[in-house]
Amino acid sequence: MNTLSQSQIVPRLKRAFARRIKPRKRSDAGLRVVRIGLLGFGRVGSAVVNTCRRARDAAARRGLRLDVRAVLVRNALGRPAPDPRTCLTADADEFFRQPIDVVVEALGGVEPAARLVETALRRGLPVVSANKALLGERGPRLFELAETLGVPLYCEASVVAGVPFLGDLRARPFAARVRRIVGVLNGTSNFILSRIERDALSLEAALADARRRGLAEPDSGRDLSGADAADKLALLLLHVGLAGVQPDAIERSGLTTLEPLDIAAAKRFGYAIRPLAFAEIDGTHVTAFVGPGLVPLSHALAHVENESNGVELRGPEIGTVFHSGPGAGPDVTAATILDDVIEIAAHPGWRRAAGAPAVRAAPGAGRRGPDHPLDRSERLQIDAPATAWFVRTRLAAHADVATLREVLNPQGVSLRATGSIMDQPGGRVLHALTHPCRRDRLERALAALHAATGGTNLALRCLEDRA
Ligand SMILES: NC(=O)c1ccc[n+]([C@@H]2O[C@H](COP(=O)([O-])OP(=O)(O)OC[C@H]3O[C@@H](n4cnc5c(N)ncnc54)[C@H](OP(=O)(O)O)[C@@H]3O)[C@@H](O)[C@H]2O)c1
Q1: Known active-site residue 232
Q2: What does the pLDDT average to over 423-438?
Q3: In the chain, what are the domain boundaries?
Q4: Which of 14, 132, 232, 267 is catalytic?
Q5: Are 191 and 371 in contact (CB under 8 A)?
Q6: pLDDT of 395
Q7: Per-residue model confidence (pLDDT) at position 217
Q8: Parallel/antiparallel/unpaired status of strands 32-39 and 102-105
Q9: N or C: which end of the chain has fewer CB within 10 A?
C-alpha cells in the first residue's frame, strides 16, 4: 500500500480544495447575447446588474448571456458604469443609440417612465417593467400599444414581485377568467400591521421599525394610503381582462387611524386585519376597495404576515387559487425581471433586426390571447361593494350596547356581534360587527353615532370566507 507523507498530502488537499471552490472557467461560446438597456440604476436596477453577473448559469442553461449594455439615470456625473462596456448616461437619446435588444424599466413613477417605455416599444424593443405606478395608471394604453406593434411588454415583478403568476393570466384565457380577487399586495403595510398585532406597537413605532429594516421608503405615503395597492389591483384587473379601471376609481382607505386595540378586538371576533385589495367582477360591473380590512382567521390571507404578499383568485373554472410569497425586495424583483427577459428572448424572432422597424413578435407575446378581450373603460361600472363592517366607537359614560343599537338601527345598520366595553385612556371603547351594507349608509349611521356620543369612530370592511 502506498502511503503519502504529510508534505505530499497538504499540497494535494490544497489543489483538490481549490478545484472545488474555484469556479470553472466557462466558455460563453455558443451563447446568444441579450443586450439589456436598463432604465434606472437604483435598488432594483443595481440588483438587475448584480443578478446578471451572479446567476450567469441560469441564463446559460437557456443558451443565453445577459449583458447590461446601457443604463439611464437621473444624474450620471462622476458615476462609474457597472462595466467598462456599458454606457451609463442621463441622456435618453444616447441611451437609445446603444445597441440594445430589450429594455428593463426600473425607474419608478409615471413620467418619464411612460414616455421612455413608449419610445422603446415604438423602436421594436421589448420592455420589462416592475413599475406598478406606471402600469396601474397607463397600463391600458401601453399594453394596447405593445399589442398593436406586436412588441412584448412584460411586468411580472410589478405585483407580488417574487411570485410569477401574471404571465399565466396573460397567456391562459381560462386561468384568467377570474371573478374575485382578494389580496395583500403591499408588503410595507402588511409588515406594519403584523408588528402592531404581534407587539402592540403604535403605528408610528411600527413604521419606524419598517424603515430601519429597509422595508419602507423614507416617503411611504403611497404604501400607507393604499395608493400602491390600488395601482397593483388595477394592474391585476387589467390582466384578467378589465383594462379600464383607473387606480383612482378604486375606494381607498389608509392605515393611519388604526390602533393596536382594534387588531386585538378583531382577533376576539375571529378575524385578522390585513391591508386588503379586493375586487369582484360581474360582467362589466366591478366592485372594489383597497384598505385595512378583516378576513377570517381561517382564511389563507390571515397567515400572510410581515412583508409577505398573497393573492387569492377565484373563477368559475379555476375555483380558488392562492399565491403567496415575497412582494418586494431588490434581489427577488431583479430575478423576476430577468426571468421575463429570458422568456422574451426564448420567443423566436424576438430580436429587432438592426435599423428595422418594429418586428412582430411571436404570437401571444405582449398580448392577452384571443379569448380574453379587454373590456373598455366606457363600458365598465366601478363602485365599492356592500360588506359587513367592523366598527370601533368611543362611548360617553352613560352609553352602552343598547345605545349603539338605538342609534344605528334607524339608519338601516344592524349589528351582528358586539364586544365588551373597554375602559381606555381616551374614554370607553366598544367594537362591533355589522351586517353587510354599503359605505354611504354606514357613514350616515356613524355620523348619527358621532352626534349621539361625541366620540370618534373607526370603520373597516369585513370579508367573509364565502365561495
Ligand atoms: N425596491 C423594490 O423592492 C421594488 C419591488 C418591486 C417593484 N419595484 C419598482 O421598481 C422600480 C424601481 O424601484 P427602486 O426601488 O429601484 O427605485 P430607486 O432606488 O429610487 O431607483 C430609481 C432609479 O431611477 C432613476 N431615475 C429616476 N427618475 C429618473 C429620471 N427622470 N430620469 C432618469 N433616471 C431616473 C434614478 O436615477 P439616480 O440614480 O440618478 O437617482 C435611480 O437610478 C419602481 O417602479 C418600483 O415601484 C421596486
Answers
A1: yes
A2: 89
A3: 32-173+330-377, 180-326, 388-462
A4: 232
A5: no
A6: 82
A7: 77
A8: parallel
A9: N
